Amino acid sequence: MHPEEDTVNFWKVASINQSEDDYWRAYEATRPNYAEDNFLNIIYDYHSFKASTSFEIAHDVGCGSGIGASELATRFAHVVASDNNASSLNAAHRFLVPTPNSKDSDKFTFVICMAEELAAHHEPQSADLVAAAECLPLMDGSAALSAFSTILKPGGTLAIWFYARPHFSEPEYISTCQPIFDRILDCIFSKLINGHGSKRTEGWKKAAEGCISWLDYLDFFEKPGEWEKVVRRKWNNKSTQNTFFTPAACDFELEPISKVTAEEEVIEVEDPSMWERRWDMRGVKDFIDYSFPNVKSLVDGNDEIQGLLKKLQYAMGGEREIRAFKWPIVLVLATKS
């Protein structure tokens, strides 16, 4: 991290002190697979239900390493991958189009830009679907929704989803292991969040409040007639927190925000098996190490965190004992009017 850079874009200044490709591959190994458990089919079914459905052009906004774009490319003729971080976009390019002669070289377009500025880079009403995974809390939500609306065709689909830290799902380990796991993540993120300037604090506060709100802060009816058929689907929201840290990590107060209206459909499902992961201590440590850029060196050099890791290993029953984990997940779908 670079504390001297005081900016709301805390992810962008978190330059990765290792191979970008190595970081993203390790990151992906600890995260859910979007193709599992019918998740993407929920999006495709929603999109297909409309009379004038097209699967020509999809946008993967805030594409990161390109894993979402690779899945969209199995259903859409062309995928635009965009990110405001050049190093991440380059990693996505290497992943999706390894060589100039790759068979899918014409299937992808890569654009470096902020989501809020997509309309300056693409024709109005040019996209069939806009997907934004794991990135909306980092953005100006109102400006991003406006940009998405501009580039979507009438009847086009917006799909936004977010998940945060996994939670122990077996009852006997929820009370004993989860508090230790949370404390480890709080120790890490408190060092990333606090003491880096007012703009950085503003960025973290906005993102954290968006997460604890389960994306309910997104106002689809701020501009009348822009969106319709809004569906907010939440998994495990009664038993988990959809943040990578608890409020204890922050030196500011967090307040959930809701702009949900009566016109929207809200679906809540308790399903620990959705994207379930089964990890031993090595798997848990990998998630922690790649929860944010450059965390591994922070973890390995911190005596308090090392002590907590030992406590967690003991509470889990030992280094090789495997435990089940569930995820907090929210998926928001909307149709461009």
From TrEMBL:
GO molecular function, one term: S-adenosylmethionine-dependent methyltransferase activity
Residue ranges of domain Methyltransferase type in the record: 60-160
Keywords associated with the record: Methyltransferase, Transferase
Keyword Transferase belongs to the record: yes
SUPFAM superfamilies from the UniProt entry: S-adenosyl-L-methionine-dependent methyltransferases (SSF53335)
Residues annotated as transmembrane: none
UniProt-listed Pfam families: Methyltransf_11
One record GO biological process: methylation
The keyword Hydrolase is assigned to this record: no
Protein family per UniProt: Belongs to the methyltransferase superfamily.
PANTHER family the UniProt entry points to: METHYLTRANSF_11 DOMAIN-CONTAINING PROTEIN, METHYLTRANSFERASE TYPE 11 DOMAIN-CONTAINING PROTEIN
This protein's name: Methyltransferase type 11 domain-containing protein
Organism: Monilinia fructicola (Brown rot fungus)
